[in-house]
Amino acid sequence: MNIKDIIKQSAPIIIDVRTPEEFERGHVPISINIPLKEIFNRVDEIKSLDAPIVLCCLIGGRSEQARSYLNGRGIECYNGGGWMDVDGLISKCA
User: Does pTM top 0.90 for this prediction?
Assistant: First the structure.
């Protein structure tokens, strides 16, 4: 399933893995900020989320690292790439 389909078919939880400073400069309005360096300590919290998870960052590198780590712990999530791309998809699907 691709990111567009996930956004169209469900109400995903968007996790932005950039730093709080980057997040404050702009982000997907419905996203939550869990910086990449915190992902490793918040696995249980992320595992408890009851919706598809789409990860994003600036261009997709950090969100791919987070996706790989979380998938390895049994958490189904997807790399949405850059936050502006995810925001654009959400706007088109709304």
Answer: yes
